[in-house]
Structures are given as C-alpha cells and as structure tokens.
Amino acid sequence: MAKTKPGKKDLDSYSIKGTNKIVRPGDCVLMRPSDSDKPPYVARVEKIESDHRNNVKVRVRWYYRPEESIGGRRQFHGAKELFLSDHYDVQSAHTIEGKCIVHSFKNYTKLENVGAEDYFCRFEYKAATGGFTPDRVAVYCKCEMPYNPDDLMVQCEGCKDWFHPSCMGMTIEEAKKLEHFLCSDCSSDDDAKRSLNAFPVSPSVEAKVGTLALLCVYVLLFHFVYESLRSRSNFYSDNLIICIRWLVQ
Ligand SMILES: [Zn+2]
Ligand SMILES: [Zn+2]
C-alpha cells in the first residue's frame, strides 16, 4: 500500500458508506450506537478530517435526547425533540449511518409532514449541570405547560392562548371539529359582555330624552294655552270694557 502523507488534513465532505449521501461540516448526522437496541445518536458535524492513516474522523457536537438529559423526559418534550449539548467528541466517520435535519422549533411546527429524518431543537443543554438555555420558556393552557408540538392544541379566539382539549374537558375529536373556540375564561367574559350589552343602557337614555321631550311639549302646550287664555281674557276684558262703556252711555 502506498504511503500517505503524515499529519491531519481537513476535508470538505465525506460520503456515507454504501450511500450517495454526502456529509459536510454543519450537517446533522445519525451515528450508530454501540448498543444496537438504542436509537441512533444525533450530532452536528463541526469538522471532518483524515489522519495520517487516511482514517476519516469527524469532530461532532452531540444532541441529547430528553431521556439522556439529567432531568429526563418531561411531558412537554416532543418525540422528535433534541437538546444541543456542549459535549463535543471525535468519532470515526464510519459510525455515521445517515443524515437528518434538526429544525428550529418554529420551523418544525410549520412542517406539513414530519419525516423520520426531521427533529427539532429549542434548548441548548449543559451536559455537566443539566442546565438549559433558555431556562425559561413560554407556557400555555390552564396547565401552564410549554408547547409540545406532538400534542394538539386549540387557540382561543379571545385571549389567543393555546389549550389542550383534555384540559378544556374535550376529546381530540371534538376539538378537531371546532370552528370557533373560546376558553372557559373568555366564554365567561363573553357572557358578562353580552349581559352588559343586554342591560338597557341606551333605552334608558332614550327614555330620559323622551321624558324631556314630553316635558317640553307640556311646557309649550301650557305656554300656548296660557297665552291664548291670556289673550282671550284680554279680548274678553277689552270687550267687557266696551260693553260697559256702551251700557254706561
Ligand atoms: Zn393543558
Ligand atoms: Zn381565552
């Protein structure tokens, strides 16, 4: 066998054995576990290099599955969720058995179909301490849980919060059939608003305006009658004076 140059050499890519798939730095890969019962390890390839014997090695940054983390899998962790760890390693490229895509959480939730190769990551993970970045995440529903993209949630048209059908006393089938959804808080608010609207605020104002108008009519009528009586009394009194004068004469 021809002797190769000693020393390490950076490679731009590596072809996965028995496939036409090419791995480049930055790609995410599935790596064969030592225990074949376990699912493949997931890693991000940082660097590909060949050593003086032409063995291809990959420097990887491991993704942890929730069950591999110190805190373990929690209810809000998705089936395809991974944590980008601070744990780096150098592995033989031979252990790479396939490629995968680790999506951002947002992009993952937009996928129409989640394939076997699709994963998502929303947390970075410190392997030594079990700490997560970010250490806080938005929570939803009455149960105040972070969003698990595997679970169906329905959005309330009132407060725009998302809810688990089960937490709202619904089955998933019932939730899927819903065209409109208001959570219990917003539907009770809605009832309060409706009863407020039903409360006759405007009609009472109209009634007051009506009473006032009627009062004006009465005043005008009274004024008119009074004036006409007064003028008539003037008329009578004038005529009376004329009559008296006539009688006196
Ligand atoms: Zn809930
Ligand atoms: Zn609501």
TrEMBL record:
Q: Name one GO biological process term.
A: regulation of photoperiodism, flowering
**Where primarily located?**
nucleus
Q: Which Pfam families match?
A: BAH, PHD
Write one Gene Ontology MF term. transcription cis-regulatory region binding
**Mind telling me which Gene3D superfamilies this protein's record contains?**
2.30.30.490, Zinc/RING finger domain, C3HC4 (zinc finger)
| Keywords carried by this UniProt record | Flowering, Membrane, Metal-binding, Nucleus, Transcription, Transcription regulation, Transmembrane, Transmembrane helix, Zinc, Zinc-finger
**Statement: the UniProt record of this protein carries the keyword Zinc-finger:** yes
Q: Per the record, GO CC terms?
A: nucleus
Location comes to: Nucleus
**Ranges for domain BAH:** 21-136
Transmembrane annotation, as ranges? 209-226
Where does the record place the PHD-type domain? 138-189
Q: What family is it from?
A: Belongs to the SHL1/EBS protein family.
The cross-references to PANTHER family, in alphabetical order and at most eight, read: OS08G0421900 PROTEIN
- Name of the protein described by the UniProt record: BAH and coiled-coil domain-containing protein 1
Q: What is the species of this protein?
A: Morella rubra (Chinese bayberry)
Give the taxonomic lineage as stored in the record: Eukaryota, Viridiplantae, Streptophyta, Embryophyta, Tracheophyta
